[in-house]
Specification:
18% strand, 8 strands, 260 residues, alpha/beta, Spore Coat Polysaccharide Biosynthesis Protein SpsA, Chain A, globular
């Protein structure tokens, strides 16, 4: 087995939190521990998305205690897409990794994600054994089929998996329009039509132990359906945009699933 060598580029890590007072400290400390192992130049950004509990207070304390940690606050709540957009815009390093603030993913798996940046423009995880209720899994399956039908070239198997690595150069060249659950679809669709290569890798998914899920909320789902076709028109209208200079561009045939 090849020994991991530290990531040679700089890395921003962020995670959105909405009413995650029970998880935000544990998640932040796990991110710090992983980054110390895998990266020399890094920052961690907690995006408090208008929480009504003590999430913001705890985030500010963590930022005061740890020089590599910053806390930013959306007031009021901007939704999942708005929280991700805030994290991406706040990030200052060459690469940007994000996950969710609820502790359902293991930061230790950055050990296998970060090396893939040498071969792909973007790296996305897929949940090997998704620990969600059956109805949520069925909703995700149906949504994935619909998205891949709307965007024919988008072949990513787990579009909404919150374990992704993007180059900052890509983020700086796109306008993120989605403020809700459609944000992951928007970013991957734009990347696909801009001819970025996308590598996939299996990551473990763990049950939520605190807080409350909002992604399966009926209003969230309805809004995502409403926005999908508007997004499709916008992405297709801009698909002939030039590939950014200095970024490796490869055919969509390069999209590959790498087993864990």
């Amino acid at each position: 087995m090849t020994r991991f060598t530290k990531f040679q580029s700089s890395l921003s890590v962020f995670f959105p939190c909405y009413n995650e007072e029970a998880s935000v400290e544990r998640t932040t400390l796990a991110a710090l521990q992983a980054c110390e192992r895998f990266v020399d130049d890094y920052e961690i950004i907690i995006v408090n998305d208008g929480s009504k509990d003590r999430t913001g207070e705890i985030a500010d304390r963590l930022a005061a205690e740890h020089p590599r940690v910053r806390a930013v606050h959306n007031r009021p709540n901007r939704g999942y897409g708005g929280a991700l957009a805030r994290g991406f815009r706040e990030a200052s390093k060459d690469w940007i990794f994000y996950t969710d603030g609820d502790g359902q993913f293991d930061f230790g798996e950055l050990e296998k994600v970060l090396p893939m940046a040498a071969d792909y423009d973007i790296v996305t995880g897929y949940r090997m054994d998704r620990k969600d209720p059956m109805m949520r899994k069925l909703n995700a399956w149906a949504w994935g089929r619909l998205v891949r039908t709307a965007f024919r070239g988008l072949k990513v198997r787990d579009i909404d998996c919150a374990y992704k690595l993007y180059p900052k150069s890509f983020i700086d060249r796109i306008e993120m329009l989605s403020t809700g659950a459609l944000i992951d679809t928007e970013m991957l669709a734009r990347a696909t039509y801009m001819k970025y290569s996308i590598g996939e890798i299996g990551v473990h998914h763990y049950p939520r132990t605190a807080g409350e899920q909002t992604g399966a909320n009926f209003r969230v789902i309805l809004r995502a359906f409403r926005e999908l076709f508007s997004l499709r028109r916008d992405v297709l209208a801009s698909r002939d945009r030039a590939v950014p200079q200095g970024v490796v561009s490869e055919s969509q045939d390069r999209i590959t699933a790498t087993a864990a």
